[in-house]
Amino acid sequence: MPVYEEKLISPLSIRFTQEHIKTLFRDGRIVEDTEIKTSAGDGGYDAILEAPFPDIEIIRFSGGAAKRHWFTLDNRRLYCLQRAAAKLWPLR
């Protein structure tokens, strides 16, 4: 099993690891002002989100009753991606 693998996953299927996020990124940019560009999807995707920050890192965690969920420690970036994805949902 590879240590690192790139995947395209809907931000709406990824969970936060904290209940609250700070309103600013470390570089001083305001989280709410972050612009996420979208492009037409290919290979079965409706749209691809193009963020002005590095990709988020996610992990798959198995909780009780064999339920598996995606989580990230990049909560501010996930928030921005989820806001953009919610504007597009549902496309079909």
Structural class per helix/strand content? alpha+beta
Average residue-wise pLDDT? 88
The number of E-state strands comes to: 5
Give the C-alpha Rg: 14 Å
The termini sit apart by 34 Å
SSE pattern: EEEEEH
Provide the spatial order of strands within the biggest beta sheet.
Answer: 1-5-4
Q: Which term fits the overall shape?
A: globular
Strand fraction band? 15-25%
Q: Major sheet: size, sense and barrel closure?
A: 3 strands, mixed
> Count of helical segments?
1
> Helical content, roughly?
10-25%
* Low-pLDDT stretches: none
Give a topology summary.
Blueprint: E1 14-15, E2 37-40, E3 47-50, E4 58-62, E5 68-72, H1 75-88
Parallel strand pairs: 1-5
Antiparallel strand pairs: 2-3, 4-5
